Amino acid sequence: MDRTIHGVFFMKYTIGVDLGGTNIRAGLVLNNKIIKKVEVKTEASKGKNVVIKNLVSAISSVMIKDVVGIGIGSPGPLDYKKGLIIRTKNVPFKKVNLKKVLEKKFNVPVFVDNDANCFTLGEALYGSGKKHNCVIGLTVGTGVGGGIVINKKIFHGRMNAGELGHTSINFNGIKCNCGNIGCLEEYVSARGIMRIAKGLKAKTSLDVYNLVLKGNKKAIRVFEKMGFYLGVAVANFVNIFDPDIIVVGGKISNAWKFFSKSMKKTVKEKVYVNKNPIIIKSKLKHAAILGSASLVKK
Ligand SMILES: [Zn+2]
Q1: Dihedrals φ, ψ of 227, to 5°?
Q2: Fold observed for domain 131-281
């Protein structure tokens, strides 16, 4: 919000950062709009210090002196109160206090939360969830992230609520690297798709998608099956939260046309609520940057 004190007009600049395993995206945000954006490689394989250096360089390139705070969406699990990344798989952080490191460097308040929480917050504040109270977000890509935003606030439970990708859809299923068995992430993420696509001439989930675009029937069935798996999980989320809306983002959501039908059909069959929620593909560009920027307490 803009503030006027003694007739002087103050602009509230914030920075939002989406820290991913491959890329770091940082945006300078004014009035809920990104006015400058930068993307740099994370270089996760080069270790913690290089990633921090890249993060600092991304923030520096959009930094101006009027910025009042920085919000970071990071893979977790993390302690959002302390700004402490406990451990992550795609970024080589173990007990890294990002808040402390970045506050020391930039001298403005820094707020850290889970990346999928930030995506969902962005959608709830400025995207498809704008007019709704209970918004569930799912990011389907390399992994599956989840976020729960109730009355425009991230629901954390005690600390780490919303790990929807690690809810099980099969107790006799595939072992996940989190220790659980049958995690949603093992069935609908990029590697989940590759599992279903066994026997197809495809090296990546993008190859499978390209086969779908060419009308390959087996490839089409891969996404239908993935939609079914996702639908089983989404039905559970609907039964738990009875949300107004579920927004699906992440790179796999680009195949929406090919998995959403079987997903929605499965949800309809399995839910026990009076009214089906809206289930929609994310349309908001850079929801995670906008969401993380809005972590900054103004
Ligand atoms: Zn898991």
Answers
A1: -65, -40
A2: Nucleotidyltransferase; domain 5 (3.30.420)
